[in-house]
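Listing S7. Sequence submitted for prediction.
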Amino acid sequence: MKHLKNIIAICFLALLFFSCKTKEIVIEAQEVDDIVTYLASDELEGRDTGTEGIEKAATYIENYFKTIGVQPYFDTYRDSFTVKGKNAFNVIGYLEGNDPDLKNEFVILGAHYDHIGFAEAVDGDKIANGANDNAAGVGTVMTMAKYFAKTKSNKRSILFTLFSAEEKGLLGSKYLAKTLKKENLNLYLMLNFEMVGVPLVGKDYTAYVTGFEKSNLAVKMNEYAGKKIAGFLPKAGEYRLFMRSDNYPFFNEFKIPAQTFCTFDFTNFDHYHKVGDESDIMDFNHMANFVNTFIPAVRKAVNAPTKEIQLTTSK
């Protein structure tokens, strides 16, 4: 009997240890800094589609996925297409769900990794590095991939999808959305991250949701997080941001909640499509906090027993 009690005690401690280890996985500011700083470096020359710079960015993302144990969804990590005769490719990592039934449903976590290349020169600098737009979103998706790869805490399958040619008219996401629709992918949800490198000012939420009224996404994410992390920004509707990022093709093709989280509020960042969009003006403590704040809500969305996030209207 004493032997049995010892075994039970050891099993309990082991369970507690591994549970605590999962909870202790926190994304550090330096991790996000490393990703964004490389992607927004002069070496990559603004990551324009079809250039050597975006090739380097794609290779970097692929190697990151390999290192953390995220597999390619297709035969390789690259989902290839062409843009005006130039080679382009989305980069897609895949983590199978651990529930025998729910793993057949998918959640996409996405961001575009391309930018515009060059812009009007300032003091001899003409490289539009695209740190906030959108290396910051890429860093968010990549570090979330690291979290889920380490914890294996996803019941549904996840596609970590970095899009090319967003700046050319959402071409990468349009291509992939059509491909996955033809494959009859059972897509539950698409969460996109765009320009999250600096915090909102004077808001009582962490990020706003584009197309706020189209689903109960914000309500559920706040419920999952246990605090208000997703809110409504009137200017997002005024500027039709719901239709201007990579969530939109998935909304069109699949008729599911497909929305973008953003912290650019038109007052807190002056370098949109300019050479001043450099990594040294990003707030990496904010970014780490953003990722760590959103992960628990994303995890609950991925693991919900039913499709709790739903479209609310046909608007």
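Caption to Listing S7: primary sequence and predicted structure tokens for the chain studied. Confidence is low (pLDDT under 50) at residues 11-22. Residues 44 and 52 are 7 Å apart (CA to CA).
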